[in-house]
Amino acid sequence: MKRVVLLGDTHCGHITGLTPPGWMLREERFPKLYEMQKEMWGNYRKLIRKLSPVDVLIANGDLIDGKGIKSGGSEIIHPDLFEQGDMAVKALQIWNAEKTICVYGTPYHTATGSGEDVEKIIAEKLEAEIHSHAFIDIEGIILDCKHKIGSSQIPWGKHTAISRERVQNMLWADAEGGQPRADVFIRSHVHYYNYCGGIDWLAMTLPALQGPHTKFGARQCSHPVDWGVVVMDIDKGKIVNWKPEIIRLNHFKAEVIKV
Hints:
single chain; alpha/beta; 6-stranded mixed β-sheet; globular
């Protein structure tokens, strides 16, 4: 049996991204943000202790946040993308997984101005594979892993995009074996956990490891953000169990204004 941990959207380098201790904001200058970062990192370490040992770690994209151009860089801890990459390496290394597989995220977050993919360098430092669209055979179960997927502001419409990925895979598989027929479909990008499936397939969008209340999220989005990872145990062609590990962060709760 192999234990698989699926995670994504760490957005290292953003003030609400997953931030290892050496890069956290100074407590005396930014006490609230420091407490948020500290809470996230503490819960992240708890998840590692709870779920270890891990055979396969799948890091499903947007491992760094990038320059933050749309917000004028005002939410970025460090503008150097390679420094952000070192944060991501630190965050993933401590799982001490037997094998790590990375998936490319969105270029806005993860590529330099010249188009260089920083996630490729992250993968090299982790001695990990990296793919744009990964098909991973684990104990006879094929996982179809890709970062980006469309979102929905309609709660009951969240199943549509991820179930469509299964149909597209079936079409590719029928097109002279353009893709292997997959059993499990993994996507990220939308920062909410959602799943659907049938008797012979399972599809899900992963929770994020970036906290809510970014400028973009707070001002332009309305759906709840799910923070955490997904763990899956696979044995001899069967998913023995799978479970989202979702944590509600105290320091990201909305404040009530009393007058």
